[in-house]
Amino acid sequence: MKPDRLRLAAEDERDPMRELHDLLRGDAPGKSRLRMPSELTWEPPTDVVETADEIVVSVDIAGMEGKDISVVTDGAVLRVRGTRRGPSAPGVKHFHQIEIRSGPFERAVVLPSRVDPAKVSAQYTKGLLEVRIRKLAPSEYVKRVKID
């Protein structure tokens, strides 16, 4: 076997840790890397915390500006959308590792409590979007109906 063929054969062997990483990321062996247009969005890591008075949703979307992020409440769902631009790399011949996601993203979070859509605030600082939504008290949405 020629040395080039030996090198290529060695490159074809998969590292078990890389396979596990790919599997956990959703890139199972045999799964096509090509995606349908509807699957081209990615979901940023998100935390949802509930206090006595509010729901706090934190979304990790570093490298953006607040004006490029959309936050919408729709009933019991909070949607965060935007597009993160990839790094510009003029003169780059090869990319050896690309793990930072870019392109359009969307994250939909089902809120764990009823909230007041008029009492929502959002702040984007140091790559973290923090959305605070005031919870409704049961007296604000429960209504007893009198039967005649």
Walk me through the topology.
Elements: H1 3-12, H2 16-25, E1 46-50, E2 54-60, E3 69-74, E4 77-84, E5 103-110, E6 115-125, E7 128-135, H3 138-141
Please provide a written account of the structure.
- The chain folds into 2 domains: 1-34, no CATH class; 36-141, Sandwich (Immunoglobulin-like), CATH 2.60.40.
- The termini are far apart.
- The chain is 16% helix and 36% strand.
- Strand 6 and strand 7 (128-135) form a beta hairpin.
- The protein has 3 helices and 7 strands.
CATH hierarchy class name of the largest domain: Mainly Beta
- Overall pLDDT score: 82
Cα radius of gyration in angstroms? 23 Å
Detail the poorly predicted runs: 4-12, 29-33
Tally of individual helices:
3
Beta-strand residue fraction: 35-45%
CATH fold-level label of the largest domain: Immunoglobulin-like
Helix content percent band = 10-25%
Major β-sheet profile? 4 strands, antiparallel
Question: Looking across the biggest beta sheet, what order are the strands in?
Answer: 1-2-7-6
Distance between the termini: 92 Å
How would you summarize this macromolecular structure in one to three sentences?
This protein has 148 residues and is an alpha+beta fold. It has helices at residues 3-12, 16-25, 138-141, and strands spanning 46-50, 54-60, 69-74, 77-84, 103-110, 115-125, 128-135. It has three helices and seven strands.
Descriptive terms for the model:
148 residues, alpha+beta, Immunoglobulin-like, 2 domains, four-stranded antiparallel beta sheet
